[in-house]
Amino acid sequence: MEINHFIGVDVSKGTLDFSLAQLGKVVYHLRVPNSNTGIVSFIKEIKENFNVDLSFTIFCMEHNGIYNNILLSFLKKLKTNIWVESALQIKQSQGMMRGKNDKVDSGRIAMYAYRYQENYIPWNPPREVIIQIKQLLAIRSRVVEAIKQLSTPIGKDAEIFFAKGDLKLSRKCCDCSIKAMKKDVKAIEKQIKDLIQSDTYLNNLLKIITSVDGIGLMIATTIIVTTNEFKNFSCAKKFACYSGVVPFEHSSGSSIKKRPRVSHLANKTVKKMIHLATLTGIRKNGEFRDYYERKKAEGKHTMSVLNAIRNKLILRIFACVRDNRLFEKKHQILLA
Description:
The protein is an alpha/beta fold and 336 residues long.
């Protein structure tokens, strides 16, 4: 498909900055309210003044969370080409830059789409049930963080720094709140489970993922939402890289030689979840624990061994999803 126009959009809470690139040059800019009315006014302008055919146009924007929702919903109805790209990816592709504002940023996004159009990946909208689960996961995360904040100053270590009477009072004040929030967490998890069980495909996907040792409801749900039901990620190695568990070499000639390290450019939430699954796997008797102890006895670094297990978990999950089957030990390849 030949693309004739590239539109970069800088999205903010209240406004949308549109820049139109044609023949490798930004030829038009317009700022409109972040609303359906604003989007309609921009599309009307470019159709009248630049003879834009939306079927041969790409709208490119950065991941901006909920601020993108109005624009994405509108463009989805128009069935035009949508490209939602990582802000860091766009920034690093620009080289050295000086200064920024919304107008400049939208122009840079438009030129990014023009220069790298061969890398265009169509936006794959999540289903409504995935959006609902994602919102519940976000709320759960906030409640868990609040529990952590309330629990920290009244932990066992606090006994050293507080008088007994003060410590007892602090615990009494927070106990009810902590108990109530823990009930909220359980209620949220039940809502998530009910939503998944109400959807045949998701319920089957959950059973497959949780059949892998160490993977529970919340870890499986996070993976399902992050991969958009494995539509955005079909390759286990790419997802492992995205999750920050793939080590990369750092060397240059004979003067610079560092031990391979994982990149800090990763989805930290997924990485944390996979790490928790790994710790669960090595705590109980089984192959992961045997593998961990064997590699430690060989002198391997602890984090290197844990990272290897994290990779194995991801590979197993993707293999089972690909083959649409539950994980069975008799099917596994023996750990090296």
